[in-house]
From TrEMBL:
Residues 10-65 form the HTH lacI-type domain. InterPro entries: HTH_LacI, LacI/GalR-like_sensor, Lambda_DNA-bd_dom_sf, Peripla_BP_I. This is DNA-binding LacI/PurR family transcriptional regulator. Gene3D superfamilies: 3.40.50.2300, lambda repressor-like DNA-binding domains.
Length: 338
């Protein structure tokens, strides 16, 4: 076989001839994945595509009708468990609207990311682009596809924006105060994360507002061992009856420290966490925590891109994506009636 023959891509017309259908029928099969077709027709087209190793030329399709059915989501390099759930929600919402989502990891320095987004916008491969990290973009250019920026992660994949919202920390403190708790310990996270800084600040602000006391803030850096040690180091008579964790991991460390001291949770010490790790519902006792609905956030940010594609105003949804789940690890302060 010559180089020219080897390089020649099979066409949709060849697929149609082999399957014994019109090229419009093949196009409809590709667009709707065979939905609504007679099974026999769909099977002939599928077989022809496999025999010819046919792959649609997405760039050519985009040049013809500016439709590719593809959306791009941009993320910084790094790992974040929350991103998997957020992407699941965004992908589901995109599929419901007739699109597929491709995730593009942004390499290089943050200063180059805007240029990368513009290149993707001009590529003709995507109908819309959603960036989940901050970038400074020029004004939208005529003819380019929409680029929507939803700053949910910083340049190192640490949650910001709604993901770092700590407002429910106030509800936790208020709920514990209603149980009679008056002196608290906060086992904090890594302050490189906006979420850790904000949870610490709301904790302190709420105690001040309610006239309650903080024994202190233990800087644990998301370490369960550090949280365990912070509880073991509490002096006799500290008066601490509640430990508020910056996440479920440090809360579990605090519970371990309480157990080693012979304290019962929640009879002697109430403990709370954050993130609603699935295992927390099965701990003995189950952990009071804050659930973060990452999938809902994914649907929400994807809705902003869909609105831009349709030329509509961005939808407004003010309901928080977080909620407190009260479980067995919290109860009345020692000496209070249960």
């Amino acid at each position: 076989m010559s180089k020219g023959a080897a390089a020649k891509r099979p066409t949709i017309m060849e697929v149609a001839r082999l399957a014994g259908v019109s090229h419009q029928t093949v196009s409809r099969y590709l667009k709707f994945n065979g939905d609504g077709m007679k099974p026999a027709t769909s099977e002939r087209i599928r077989t022809a595509i496999e025999q010819l190793d046919y792959r649609p030329n997405l760039v050519a399709r985009a040049m013809r009708n500016r439709r590719t059915g593809r959306l791009a989501m941009l993320l910084p390099a790094g790992t974040a468990v929350s991103a998997l759930e957020l992407l699941a929600g965004a992908t589901a919402a995109a599929h419901e609207a007739g699109y597929v989502v491709e995730v593009v990891t942004l390499g290089g320095s943050p200063q180059t990311w805007a240029q990368r987004a513009l290149e993707l916008s001009d590529s003709g491969l995507f109908e819309g682009i959603l960036s989940l990290t901050r970038m400074a973009l020029p004004a939208q250019r005529p003819g380019s596809v929409p680029i929507v920026v939803s700053p949910d992660y910083d340049d190192r994949m640490r949650g910001v924006g709604e993901l770092a919202d700590a407002s429910h920390m106030a509800e936790i403190v208020e709920g514990l105060a209603a149980y009679g708790h008056r002196r608290f310990l906060h086992v904090a996270g890594d302050y490189a994360h906006t979420s850790a800084r904000q949870r610490r600040q709301v904790y302190l602000d709420t105690l001040r507002r309610l006239g309650l006391e903080s024994h202190g803030v233990a800087d644990c850096g998301w370490s369960a061992q550090a949280a365990r040690q912070a509880v073991l180091d509490l002096p006799p008579g500290s008066g601490v009856t509640a430990v508020i964790g910056a996440n479920d991991l440090v809360a579990a460390g605090a519970m371990r420290g309480a157990w080693e001291r012979g304290w019962k949770v929640p009879e002697d010490l109430s403990v709370t966490g954050w993130d609603n790790n699935p295992v927390t519902a099965f701990l003995p006792p189950s952990l009071t925590t804050v659930d973060v609905d990452h999938e809902r956030l994914g649907r929400r940010v994807l809705a902003r891109l869909l609105a831009a594609l349709r030329g509509e105003p961005a939808p407004q949804e003010d309901e928080p994506i977080t909620r407190v789940i009260w479980r067995e690890s919290t109860g009345p302060a020692p000496g209070r009636a249960r």
